Amino acid sequence: MANENLIITDDIDKIAKTAVDYINNQLEDITPENYFTIALSGGNTPKKLFRHIAENYNKALPWKRIKLFWGDERCVPPESDESNFKMTYDNLIKFIDIPPENIFRIKGENDPDEEACNYTKTLEQNLRFRRGHPSFDLILLGLGEDGHTASIFPDRLDLFTTEDYCATAVHPVTGQRRITITGKIINNAVKVTFLISGIKKAKVVREVILRSPEASRYPAYFVNPVDGKLKWILDAEAAGEL
Fold first, then answer.
1. How far is 120 from 117, CA to CA, in rounded Å?
2. DSSP letters along 111-171, please?
3. Which whole number is the average pLDDT over 41-54?
4. Measuring CA to CA, how many Å separate 188 from each of 180, 192, 227?
5. Shortest CA distance to 141 belongs to which of 130, 152, 133?
6. Strands of 191-196's sheet, edge to edge?
7. Average pLDDT, the chain
8. What phi, psi does 205 have (nearest 5°)?
9. For the residues 158-172, what does the mean pLDDT come to?
10. For residue 125, what are the CA distances in angstroms to 122, 128, 129, 135, 229?
11. What is the pLDDT of residue 76?
12. SS3 at position 6
């Protein structure tokens, strides 16, 4: 892996500044009538990133030209503390000047199968197409201790080969239902970035980044953007076994 695709830092400001600069640089290549599209992730590291951007860089981005989506959502209402949308709203959205029509949340309160279909239509109607499929400019992903990413768990590796753009999944421990984008969307993005922190992720990080044979049981192993770029941003603990 090239060094520029792996950032190890404890400095959340460096991560935020990298993200802001990347988005602004990409917007220079997008015509004014178009938008920069981002699929957001839940989790503690994105939470820290969102809050830091809101507090330090909220005026640094042209939010009116940015559309926000989500990579996955728990099947809960938007006011639930388990909602990825609520986490993003509380730490980013309420602090920035982004038009409501630029926010495309997954409606976790709806019937999951119907919402997976509805969100597929949302992607088809609001993303540019590459290689015949909807394509995000940037997807942010987290990583679970079991190697899952978005809401694609180890027992659902089929979600990396399905032709569907969105699907439902069930958390293998809690039984909670989720709605997630699939590998078809993840690997068609222009850029995918993992944001990972914590020593409990170090083993999985090492196996996936080094492409160990045992890593093929992890969904994160199959994140490999076609004609796109994959970046890893880790804190020192998550990178501890590299």
1. 5
2. -HHHHHHHHHHHHHHHSEEETTEEE-SEEEE---TTS-BTTB-GGGGGGGT-S-SEEEEE-
3. 90
4. 15, 9, 8
5. 152
6. 6-8, 229-234, 191-196, 138-141, 36-40, 66-70
7. 93
8. -55, -50
9. 97
10. 5, 8, 10, 11, 24
11. 98
12. strand
Q: Which CATH architecture has domain 37-140+148-181?
A: 3-Layer(aba) Sandwich (3.40)
CA-closest candidate to residue 104, choices 76, 128, 127, 132? 127
Polymer length in residues for the chain? 242
Annotate 37-76 with DSSP letters as a single string: EEEE--SHHHHHHHHHHHHHSTTTS-GGGEEEEESEEESS
What does pTM read for this prediction?
A: 0.94
DSSP state of 221: G
Q: Stretch 118-133: mean pLDDT, rounded?
A: 96
Q: Which two tokens stand for residue 239?
A: 């990178």
Query: Which residue has 């939470």 as its token pair?
Result: 47
Helix/strand/coil percentages in the chain, nearest 5: 40, 20, 40
Residue 150 phi, psi dihedral angles, 5° rounding: 50, -130
